[in-house]
Design a protein that fits this description.
The protein has helices spanning 23-36, 56-76, 104-107, 116-130, 154-171, 185-197, 213-224, 236-244, 279-283, 300-310, 323-331, 338-348, 353-364, 384-410, 414-432, 440-451, 456-464, 477-489, and strands spanning 2-6, 40-43, 79-85, 88-90, 108-110, 138-142, 176-180, 229-233, 251-253, 289-293. It is an alpha/beta fold. Strands 9-8-7-6-3-2-1-10 form an eight-stranded parallel beta sheet. A two-stranded antiparallel ribbon has the order 4-5. Strand 8, helix 8 and strand 9 form a beta-alpha-beta unit. The chain is globular and about 60 Å long. It starts with a strand and ends with a helix.
Amino acid sequence: MLGMYVHTHWGYNRPYSARRWTVADWEGYLEGLARLGFDTVKVWPQIDTMPVIPTASDAAYLRTLAQATDIAHRRFGMKVIVVLAANCMGNEKAADYEFATRPYFVCEKKVNPQDKAEMAAFLEQRRNTLMLVKAADAIAVIDSDPGGFIGSTNADFAMLCAEQTRVFREANPRGEFVYWMLAGWETYCAFWRAQRDNPQADANLWCYQKPDEFDVILTLLKTRIPEPWWLTSWLPQHEAAINRQGLRDKAMFYPYGAVEGEPVFPLIVCYGLGQALNPKDIGLHPRGAMANAQSHCLQLPHTYWFARLVKGDKTPVHPFADTESLTAFAARLIPAQAAAVAEGWNAIESREPARQRAAARALRGALGKPLRTGDLAGLLFGDAERFLLDLAMNLELRAALVELGAAVERGGDVRASVRLVLERFVPWQERVGFVDAYGGPLYGGLNEPLKKLDDPALDAVLKDFEDWHNPSIRNGIVPRLIAAMRRYLA
C-alpha cells in the first residue's frame, strides 16, 4: 500500500485545511493521489471532539467524508481508514462550536476507561458517529497524542481498541483495525501526570517512554483484537517490538513528518526526503508506507517524491539535484508554467532572498493569464491561480525571514526587517486563516529570532507557544504574536 494521512486538527481556511474540503475537493485530490500511485487514504475526522449526538455541522462533515469514501472506492479502488483517539470525545463545550472552527483542546474530554458511565457515553458517541462513515475500510487508533488518562494502563488501552473495533464492526462487519504506534499509552499518561503535577516538567514526550511498552501492548492486542488487524510503525523501538512479537507481516512504514510536520504554520516545504525515506526501511514493511500532511495543497513536491521513493525510484531526491523531475511533475499541473513552478519550489529552501524574490516575480507574472492544467489538476483544488500565488507569497515570506535572521545575528536594522516580515506574513496568515501554535519552518525563521530581541511583550507570547500544562492557551496565539510584533515597532 501507498498511503496519505489527511490531518484535520486545526480549523483554518479552504483548501489549506481539510476540515473545509468539499466533495469536489476530495474527488480532485484523490484523483491526483491515485495518478501518483497512492491507493490508501487515512483521515482524522475529529470524531474525538464531537458530542454524544453529533451536531448538524458534525454530521454534515461526516456525510462529506462518506461521499469521499464512496468516490475513493468506486473511482480509484482506494482504501479509506478513519482515525480515532483512544479515549477522546467532545465535552460540554463541543456543541457550542461549528465543526470547521471547533478548537480541539477547548472541546476535548479524556474519558476514564475505568468509569462505566463515561465508557457507556463514549461508546454511544462512537456508535452514533461511526455509523455515518461505516463504509470506511478500517479504523486506526493511536496510542498517544491525543488521548491518555492519568493512571491508566496498557490493558485499558487494549480494551479501548477492542471496544471501538467492536462498535465499528457492528456497522461494518468487514472493518479492519489498525494500531497506530507512536509513544505508547502508559508513556503518554505519564507525560500528562508530569504536566499536571510539576510546573517545571519536561515537555519532551519521549523522555517518559517505557522500554518494554510496545511488547506489552502488542501482546495484549494479539489476544483482544479479532482479525483482520495490522499496524503502522516508524521508530526503532516500534520495529524491535514488532520483530520480537513476530508481527512483521502486519507492519506499514509511517515516517511521520516526512512530507510535512505538524503542528506547523502552513508553509510550502521542499527540502528532499532521502534521509527520511530509506529504501531499506520501506522494504522491511510488507504493508507498504504512509505519508502525512497538514496542509495538503501546499506540499505537492514532497507528496510527489514520497510516491517515487516508495515505488522504488533510487534517484537521489533533493531539490538542488532534481530540477528535471520537478519540472516534469509541474508540467502535469500547469504545463506552460512548469519551469517557473519548479524554480519556485527549488528556491523555497535556498536561503537566497534575491533568488526567492526573482522566482516570486516570475510566478506573479503568470497571474491573470489563461492557465491550462494537466492530468494532475486535482491537486490544485480547482484553482491554478491560487496555487501560483501561494508559491509566490511563500517565496516572498521566506526571503523576509532569511533577512530577519541575518539582521538579528549581525546587528542590522532589525526593526526594518520585522516590518518587512509583517508586510509579508500578515497577508499570508489572513489567506490561510491559521491562528494556533506551530513548529516547523516558521518557528525557526520567526520565533527563534524574535526570542533574541529581549522584548517583554514578544517574550510573553513566545513563552505560551511552549505551554503544555494548559494547551488551550495556545489557541488563537498567532494574532497575539502579530499584535506583539506591531507593539515592538510602535
